[in-house]
């Protein structure tokens, strides 16, 4: 081209054109939800056993097929459910006169290909309708990522406190350097309770360490227990569906809440999609989760979002996988947790798919820190977008579980969390958090405002902490000794949850009075206008009143 | 955006520009033919080493031939030279193996650590994703992880080699500074999936792990 058209020159510079887009490649599974290689639905049952599923006889089942056939498919309802035409089934999902309970009675009788076939009949608005009706907990909630690139503890505690104060019921951290895990977990445990009692915290790292931290009481739940849709990817991770089920039972036996994680794109990202579409493989992951008896799942592509995000219909498939999760009556932590685009327009459009219908956790999680500090490699939205989210809630009268705050309130909780962390460090033998660090963490935008710590000394102290056998109770004791009685009580309250076990129910969150709210006592009963979760009354009054709104009396 | 040649060229220019900006960058991608295959000679099955002064580096089968450079176009010959230089600066030696069994960076690095006389190994995927591992850790643990291939630059590879050697000597070094770019995924993940699907096509469980030397 010798002469450029000026509009095209402008378009070329737009953020969206920095994104990577890939054409479909069916042969390796680079396709969202409609591969010619996806199997056709079908199920044969003899003597109460699945003998053929989606065209594959049981003699040819791979390990995932075997697990799903034996542990997920409900043979008692299968004949009835499989006989329903996929289009009719899809209509039931959006029909306000068909209850969620009736649908969830039938779904366990469906095969992976049948669930795929039903979801393929639905557009994104219909999928959102299904989510609104079928998610397990009535009240939507939200999760935040709290991390920083320096793994600096006072800032982690301060950010955790701000996150829970703003309304995030769950906080998730991870590490820049793996060996920092226990220290980061403690920062969230303390900071989370300072901001709001009952906040659930986790630290996503290697699975054995993650379980160990849960058992020590440094975390309240776990989420990063990954499952995959093809045998080879499972084997590459040194796992099987049975080993993951075993790990799940290890958590359950210690009274620790947990959910699995999966997502479209992971199999093709790891090179073994067996020519199947991303959504078909993800449905298998969801069925493995159900079969393992786990209460919930984090999905919505998660860390592979750049893959479905790069192919046609990918973001629709991501919503469809969230819907498949609630169809199987599982808690859904619905993604929106990783950057997938340079374009703010694409970014928000993708998030509306979960925000508008509401899910158990709309984000999993929202970046409670600036994205440069987000060690999950960035989330769709970050701490700089808080006010946009509050306005979106107010514009649409739609709840993503955040609340308006003032600068004074945030300074106060950040400072308290950093000081509590300083006290605990002194007691458990970690290298001191200086007053300078407390001050910096209180007022920081992010880790760029924090002084550097001596990392080798931190890491050595963490190693000793792990060897010492200290637990969450030592944290409680340290807080109490240094005058943080209320925080000590809250941390103890979280430890007690593991004894009572009520928060092991599906979609459980813990409120500020340590009451558990789950799919059992806060069941989603949506059946059209006037039912289900409504943003109204006291809560709506709270969300209406953002500080920047001008009041008529003030003029 | 489709990955056009023009865009690749732009990325290369940016990367080379960044590298030129860092005075310490010891090797320049500009000086090397990035398409030239690595001259690797396979020497038969890799043996567990007994030399406590070695660090083993494991690469997947396609490394150096298909492709010949990382996701930000650092030639694989430069990658290996930098890692080896980092190790040698600490007075230790580098030994290379090609693992035909896995293209998973954690297992790749873990296999290197198992073979290493010092118990410390490094795994490097063709696109640049890297791990420093120790033989007594669980496969999915690590000493240091460099998960974002577009941020692993030539000098990072030297620092990886240097730190691996320090761990091998029983030291507790400052970890290589962690980098994070939230926009690496939107730009590169689709491409990374393409590259990885090519990478796994070269796996061959019959061949296991072979000792390699550069010709």
TrEMBL record, chain A:
Pfam families: Dehydratase_LU. GO terms for molecular function: cobalamin binding; hydro-lyase activity. It comes from the Bacteria. NCBIfam families: PRK15444.1. This is Propanediol dehydratase large subunit. Residues 3-554 form the Diol/glycerol dehydratase large subunit domain.
UniProtKB/TrEMBL annotation, chain B:
Gene3D superfamilies: B12-dependent dehydatase associated subunit (3.40.50.10150). Transmembrane segments: none annotated. It comes from the Bacteria. It holds the Pfam family Dehydratase_MU. InterPro entries: B12-dep_deHydtase_bsu, Dehydtase/Dehydtase_re. NCBIfam families: PRK15042.1. This is Propanediol dehydratase medium subunit. It comes from Desulfatibacillum alkenivorans DSM 16219.
């Amino acid at each position: 081209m010798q002469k450029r058209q000026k509009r095209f020159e402008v378009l070329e510079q737009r953020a969206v054109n920095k994104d990577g887009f890939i054409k479909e490649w069916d042969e390796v599974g680079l396709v969202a939800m409609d591969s010619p290689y996806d199997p056709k639905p079908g199920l044969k049952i003899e003597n109460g056993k699945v003998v053929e599923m989606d065209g594959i006889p049981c003699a040819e089942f791979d390990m995932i097929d075997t697990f799903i056939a034996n542990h997920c498919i409900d043979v008692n309802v299968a004949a009835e459910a499989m006989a329903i035409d996929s289009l009719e089934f899809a209509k039931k999902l959006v029909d306000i006169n068909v209850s969620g309970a009736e649908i969830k009675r039938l779904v366990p009788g469906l095969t992976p290909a049948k669930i795929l076939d039903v979801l393929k009949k639905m557009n994104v608005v219909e999928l959102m309708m299904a989510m609104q009706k079928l998610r397990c907990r009535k009240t939507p909630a939200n999760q935040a990522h709290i991390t920083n690139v320096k793994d600096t503890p006072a800032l982690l505690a301060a950010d955790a406190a701000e996150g829970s104060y703003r309304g995030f019921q769950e906080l998730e951290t991870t590490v820049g350097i793996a060996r920092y895990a226990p220290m980061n977990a403690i920062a969230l445990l303390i900071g989370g309770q300072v901001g709001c009692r009952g906040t659930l915290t986790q630290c996503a790292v290697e699975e054995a360490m993650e379980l160990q931290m849960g058992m020590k009481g440094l975390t309240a739940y776990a989420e990063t227990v990954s499952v995959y849709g093809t045998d080879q990817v499972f084997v590459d991770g040194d796992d099987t569906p049975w080993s993951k089920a075993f790990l799940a039972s290890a958590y359950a036996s210690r009274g620790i809440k947990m959910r699995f994680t999966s997502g479209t794109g992971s199999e093709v990202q790891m090179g073994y999609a067996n020519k199947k579409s991303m959504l078909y493989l993800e449905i298998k992951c969801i069925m493995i989760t159900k079969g393992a008896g786990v209460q919930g799942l984090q999905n919505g592509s998660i860390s592979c979002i750049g893959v479905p995000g790069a192919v046609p219909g990918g973001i629709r498939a991501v919503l469809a996988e969230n819907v498949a999760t609630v169809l199987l009556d599982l808690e859904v932590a619905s993604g929106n947790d990783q950057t997938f685009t340079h374009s703010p327009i694409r970014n928000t459009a993708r998030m509306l798919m979960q925000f508008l219908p509401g899910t158990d956790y709309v984000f999993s999680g929202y970046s409670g820190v600036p994205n440069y500090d987000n060690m999950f490699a960035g989330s769709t939205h970050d701490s700089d977008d808080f006010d946009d989210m509050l306005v979106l809630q107010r514009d649409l009268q739609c709840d993503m579980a955040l609340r308006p705050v003032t600068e004074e309130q945030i300074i106060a909780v950040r400072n308290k969390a950093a000081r509590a962390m300083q006290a605990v460090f002194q007691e458990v033998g970690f290298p001191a958090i200086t007053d300078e660090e407390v001050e910096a963490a209180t007022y920081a935008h992010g880790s760029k405002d924090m002084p550097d710590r001596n990392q080798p000394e931190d890491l050595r102290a963490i190693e000793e902490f792990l060897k010492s056998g200290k637990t969450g109770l030592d944290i409680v004791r340290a807080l109490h000794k240094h005058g943080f009685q209320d925080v000590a009580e809250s941390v103890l309250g979280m430890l007690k949850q593991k004894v009572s076990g009520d928060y092991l129910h599906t979609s459980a969150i813990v409120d500020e009075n340590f009451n558990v709210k789950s799919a059992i006592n806060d069941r989603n009963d949506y059946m059209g206008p006037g039912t289900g979760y409504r943003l109204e009354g006291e809560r709506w009054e709270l969300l209406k009143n953002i500080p920047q709104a001008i009041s008529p009396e003030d003029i | 955006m489709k990955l056009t040649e023009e865009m690749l060229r732009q990325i290369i220019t940016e990367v080379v520009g960044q590298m030129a900006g860092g005075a310490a960058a010891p090797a320049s991608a500009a000086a090397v033919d990035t398409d030239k295959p690595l001259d690797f000679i396979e020497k038969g099955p890799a043996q567990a080493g007994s030399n406590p002064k070695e660090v083993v580096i494991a690469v997947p089968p396609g490394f150096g031939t298909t492709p010949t450079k990382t996701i930000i176009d650092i030639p694989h010959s430069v990658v290996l030279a930098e890692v080896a230089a980092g190790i040698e600066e600490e007075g230790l030696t580098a030994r290379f193996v090609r693992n035909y069994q896995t293209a998973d960076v954690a297992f790749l690095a873990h296999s290197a650590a198992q073979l290493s006389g010092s118990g410390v190994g490094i795994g490097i995927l063709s696109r640049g994703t890297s791990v420093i591992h120790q033989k007594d850790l669980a496969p999915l643990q690590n000493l240091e992880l460099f998960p974002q291939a577009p941020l692993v630059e030539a000098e990072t590879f030297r620092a990886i080699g240097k730190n691996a050697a320090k761990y091998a000597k029983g030291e507790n070094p400052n970890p290589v500074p962690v980098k994070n770019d939230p926009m690496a995924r939107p730009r590169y993940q689709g491409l990374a999936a393409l590259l990885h699907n090519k990478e796994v096509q070269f796996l061959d469980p019959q061949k296991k792990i072979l000792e390699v030397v550069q010709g």
